[in-house]
Structure formats: structure tokens, C-alpha cells
Design brief:
With about 160 residues, the chain is α+β, with helices and mostly antiparallel strands. Helix content is about 40%, strand content about 30%. The chain contains five helices and eight strands. A hairpin with a 2-residue loop joins β4 and β5. α1 packs across α2 and α4 packs across α5. The radius of gyration is 17 Å and the shape is globular. The N and C termini lie far apart (about 55 Å).
């Protein structure tokens, strides 16, 4: 699929969880507020310490979530096609705690800048609410995964059944 074709891009998005309750016309409207960005492998999408001024939605390829500590960098997760990223810093306006890098030879993301999100909220509130609900679900999945990882770590570290 050539993601630069707006019709194909709208059809792709229409099949994703982000747009499951939107009509194809609403998906096309959403696309008018975004920009398609093409990145090469290892190119930084957003970095540690930046305040999120955009939401990202991967339409081709994947991105790595990297924890940076001094000169060491550790991958803590991957975001694939059809998934949103950058929502934590975007909504709470706190500095990012991870780096997001393109991991595929060619990664394409839809970038929704804050100013366009603000316009979208005013001009098309149903679409904005849909985005917000998707961000909540995305953060819920992240929280549940971290909770599971912490519980597993505690069982391993402290032993099963110990308090």
C-alpha cells in the first residue's frame, strides 16, 4: 500500500481501532488535521525531555520505545502499525520519559500537532472524543502491562507467596 494515497490511507485507518466508530467521511476529516511523516530506521520521532506537542499514529512500520540512562539505551517496548504513541506527554504536558525511534527501513506516522488537535476539538468534537477514548484505552493497556510486569518481578524477586 502506498500510504501517500489519501484514499488508501483513509481505508487503512477505517480498519483500525482508533477509527472503528468513525465513518469514512469522519476518517477523511481526521486526515485533514494530520500530516504524514516518513522516517528512516533509527530516526528519532520524539525524545526524552521534550513536552509532547503531537500525537503519533503508526500507519507503516514500527517504532521502538527507548529508555535512556547516561550513555546506555534500553528498548522497553515496540509500537506497531495501527497503534497510537506519544499520548502521555501530549495530554499531561510533562516531559517525555522515553525516546521514540523508527525501527523499520521506512516508517510512516500520522502526526497530529497540538494546535490541530485543539481545532479538531472545536470543529469536530465527536472525532476528538474518539481520539481521546482511544488514548485512554492505550494508556490502560500500558498500565495493565506494567502492573503485570511489576507483579511478575515481585514474585521472582521476593518469591511466590511471600509478603
Amino acid at each position: 500500500m502506498t500510504q501517500q494515497n489519501p484514499v488508501e490511507l483513509a481505508e487503512f485507518l477505517n480498519q483500525q481501532a482508533l477509527c472503528e466508530s468513525l465513518t469514512i467521511k469522519e476518517v477523511q476529516t481526521l486526515l485533514e488535521y494530520t500530516e504524514l511523516v516518513t522516517l528512516q530506521r533509527d530516526e528519532v520521532i520524539a525524545d526524552v525531555g521534550e513536552v509532547g506537542e503531537a500525537l503519533y499514529f503508526i500507519v507503516q512500520g514500527e517504532a521502538a520505545l527507548l529508555s535512556v540512562s547516561g550513555t546506555e539505551t534500553f528498548e522497553v517496548g515496540r509500537i506497531g502499525e495501527g497503534e497510537m504513541m506519544g499520548e502521555m506527554s501530549f495530554f499531561d504536558r510533562q516531559p517525555r520519559s522515553i525516546r521514540m525511534e523508527a525501527r523499520s527501513g521506512e516508517t510512516r506516522v500520522l502526526r497530529l500537532p497540538r494546535v490541530m488537535y485543539s481545532r479538531l476539538r472545536l470543529e469536530h468534537p465527536f472525532i476528538a472524543v474518539n481520539l481521546l477514548e482511544h488514548a485512554i484505552v492505550s494508556l490502560d493497556h500500558l498500565f495493565r502491562q506494567v502492573s503485570t510486569d511489576v507483579a511478575t518481578f515481585n514474585q521472582y524477586f521476593y518469591g511466590i507467596g511471600r509478603r
